[in-house]
Amino acid sequence: MSILRIVKHGEPVLKKPCPPLDYDSIRLELPRILRDMWDTMYAAQGVGLAAPQVGLHLRLSVVDVRPEGKAQRLVLINPQIIACEGSMFEEEGCLSLPGVYAKIQRHARVRVRALDARGRPFEMEGAGLLGRAFQHEVDHLDGKLFIDHLSFTDKLKVLALVKDLRRDWM
Ligand code: NI
Known about the structure:
Blueprint: H1 23-26, H2 30-43, E1 48-50, E2 60-63, E3 74-85, E4 88-92, E5 102-106, E6 109-115, E7 121-127, H3 128-141, H4 152-165
Antiparallel strand pairs: 1-2, 2-3, 3-6, 4-5, 6-7
Bound molecules: nickel (II) ion (NI).
């Protein structure tokens, strides 16, 4: 079991959009990468983790929002939001911004298309926390963090807070 260091806001890898991933080129390494990502996500008590958050420039995320308290491991390779509906305004956080929470606007329900851990295409709908996780993870792979959805003034407030918090980040 390997728990990797989680990259924090301000480190360049989080801002770099990840190009589409060629499944065959990582097929052999994928089991190890995923194992480390799951270990890291669960250890940090997160519900999602994108590869750039562990320093890997790969268009790949893992999600487990534990519906009804049971594990539901979703591997998202090259995820795309292909449909969306409604809107919600809920508090969000991110393992790359420990201690920072803010309400942002998201679609209430989305449909995601991706490849799974075996490279098979699938589609899935998500509402509530799962829908938010899908949107949050796709953002990571596009080089965006949830605070990028804030208004200019709200983002300035958050960044002032980040300046204080950063001293405790590892
Ligand atoms: Ni995040």
